[in-house]
Amino acid sequence: MNRSSERHNYARDSPRTIALAAGSLRAAAPQRKDSDVPIVTVQQSPRELEPKRRLVAGITQAFVDAYGVSPDAVQVFIDEVGHENWAKGGTLAVDRDR
Hints:
It is built from 4 helices and 4 strands. Helices cover 35% and strands 16% of the residues. It has a two-stranded parallel sheet. A two-stranded antiparallel ribbon has the order 3-4. It folds into 2 domains: 1-31, no CATH class; 33-98, Macrophage Migration Inhibitory Factor (2-Layer Sandwich). The chain has helices spanning 3-6, 15-21, 49-67, 93-96; strands spanning 39-44, 75-80, 87-88, 91-92.
């Protein structure tokens, strides 16, 4: 076996493996990987607060149901884009509303 194959891949190894490889006498508790945390970005026109509350609750519940994650693990970002900042079919949305 060559030296390069003996090295640990710390990006791939679990926290437990890393702690033991570093000489720790106790095993580290497994930690959640960043990839285990669903992050959702919604791009939309500005909306009122109550519909946004319903939206994020529904998105969160969908991830809980589909992936079995805790609701606290789901992050939802709402990016509101004003009608003067997006276009469809070559026309700004602000001009389409006229």
